[in-house]
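Exercise: predict the fold of this chain.
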Amino acid sequence: MYKYTVCFVKNENNILMLNREKSPIMGVWNGVGGKIEKGETPDEGALREVFEETGIRVERYFSKGTVSWETSNGERDGIYVYLYEVTNHLKLETPIKTREGILDWKSINWILNPINLGIAEMVSQYLPVLLNKADNYSLKYQDAQIHIN
C-alpha cells in the first residue's frame, strides 16, 4: 500500500536516529528507513534498510504500524513504522557519518521533549505508540494531530 518505511532501533532509553543530509526530511532527526523495493514486503524492506543504513542486523520488530496523511493534492499517503530493540552488547559508537547523514543515539526524553524542534514532524506523536509496543496499528495524521484508528 505505502512505499516507505521508518525504523527506530532502541537500546535501553536511547534510540538510534539519523540526521539526513538530503531530502526528504533533510536536516532533522528521524529513524532510519527508506523505499520498499519491488518484490519486498514492508517487513523485508524495513530489515534491509536498518542494515544498509546502520550495519545492525535486527531479527524481529517489537512494534509496527502505519501512519497516513492527506497530500496537498487530496490523496492519502503514508509510511510503515517499526520499533526494534537491541541489547547493550551492541557496540555502535556514535556519532557516525554515513552516506545518508549522521547517526547518533538520542535519549527518548530528548526526542520527545515538546520544545525539540529538530525532530521530524510526526515522530513525537507516533513514537510513544511504538514504545508501548502496539502492533499493527493505524494512525492518521490530520489537522496536525495523530488519530488512532
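Check your answer against the key: The two ends are 17 Å apart (CA to CA).
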